[in-house]
Design brief:
The structure holds two protein chains of two kinds.
Chain A: E1 4-6, E2 10-13, E3 19-25, E4 31-38, E5 42-49, E6 56-57, E7 64-70, E8 73-78, E9 87-94, E10 104-105, E11 109-113
Chain B: E1 4-5, E2 10-14, E3 19-25, E4 32-38, E5 45-51, E6 56-59, E7 62-67, E8 72-77, E9 86-93, E10 105-106, E11 110-115
Parallel strand pairs in B: 2-11
Antiparallel strand pairs in B: 1-3, 3-8, 4-5, 4-9, 6-7, 7-8, 9-10, 9-11
Classes of the chains: A mainly beta, B mainly beta.
């Protein structure tokens, strides 16, 4: 079974703080993704990475950065948290192959920015 | 501009009956479609998928139908059970990089409630 873990289930931070969200997958997947989920907006892609040290912007990268130093780990960084970044953050991973592969999600981190 | 649309935000069904969740897409380059199920405070879990070369895929109580000419897919759950109550997301992808998965484009989700 694929396992994707996220460092925290719940986080409370103050405006202006630097926030790190960590994601680790144990299936040697090449691709990793960060989404946020908000009511009525579904899942929106923030950043993704298809290889170590590679990253690409998704649909809503503003206010976020990412780091992929090791294949199994993909970090999402909020340089200066703002209240509009209060959300559920979901990490996912998938394998690269000749056919499309399913993305597997972690349990999510619910972030509250005060 | 939504490329994947789930026009029903919610659906209520009686236990034992069929649940039909619908999804429409606009991008004709999409060639792979997935359904995910999400419980509150958990990550989405993969449910079933279908490639554009097929028009039906079945897995137990779950069947996905794809109508490419209408750019429409649906998820049928028969019989529906109270444990199926969750938010269901439709997702689609198109090959972007050679040998790599295209990113998934998600719909906004449909909340299914199955009443005992």
């Amino acid at each position: 079974d694929v396992k994707v873990t996220q460092s925290s289930r719940y986080l409370v931070k103050r405006t202006g703080e630097k926030v790190f969200l960590e994601c680790v997958q144990d299936m040697d997947h090449e691709n990793m993704f960060w989404y946020r989920q908000d009511p009525g907006l579904g899942l929106r892609l923030i950043y993704f990475s298809y290889d170590v040290k590679m990253k690409e912007k998704g649909d809503i990268p503003e206010g976020y950065s990412v780091s992929r130093e090791k294949k199994e780990r993909f970090s999402l960084i909020l340089e200066s948290a703002s209240t509009n970044q209060t959300s559920m953050y979901l990490c996912a991973s998938s394998r690269t192959g000749s056919t499309q592969e399913t993305q597997y999600f972690g349990p999510g981190t619910r972030l509250l920015v005060l | 501009d939504q490329q994947v649309k789930q026009n029903s935000p919610s659906l209520s069904v009686q236990e034992g009956r069929i649940s039909i969740l619908n999804c429409d897409y606009t991008n004709s380059m999409f060639d792979y479609f997935l359904w995910y199920k999400k419980y509150p405070a958990e990550g989405p879990t993969f449910l079933i998928s279908i490639s554009s070369i097929k028009d039906k895929n079945e897995d137990g109580r779950f069947t996905v139908f794809l109508n490419k000419s209408a750019k429409h897919l649906s998820l049928h759950i028969v019989p529906s059970q109270p444990g199926d109550s969750a938010v269901y997301f439709c997702a689609a992808s198109a090959r972007r990089y050679g040998g790599s998965q295209g990113n998934l484009i998600f719909g906004k989700g449909t909340k299914l409630s199955v009443k005992p």
